[in-house]
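Format notes (please read before filing issues)

Several people have asked whether sequences and structure tokens are stored in separate files. They are not. Every record keeps both together, in the order shown below: the sequence lines, then the token lines. Line labels are part of the format and must not be stripped during preprocessing.
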Amino acid sequence: MRVVVHPEAGQELAAAALWHEERQPGLGSNFLDEFEHTLRRIAAEPERWGKMRGDNRKLNFRLFPFAIVYRPRSDALYVTAAMHLHRRPFYWKDRV
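Then the structure lines:
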């Protein structure tokens, strides 16, 4: 399945990986691995994970307090946000 990442979601992901890497060498790489693992789970069963606002869905990372917010479509999986679970809920709601 084709994956389209919103530019701001890509920036969030990169910033979070850098933050983790600065705290402990290798942790940023582990964070990105966890993102990829979570994205593979979503791609395997895009309709399985819980709905949130509108037609957006969310799946939490297993090891970090983050989630991928996405919209499944017939042509692609649209990643709306790489959301920290303890900050500003729904800040991403205006992203298309």
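For reference, the curators noted about this record: The first strand starts at residue 3 and ends at 5. The helical segments are 7-23, 27-44.
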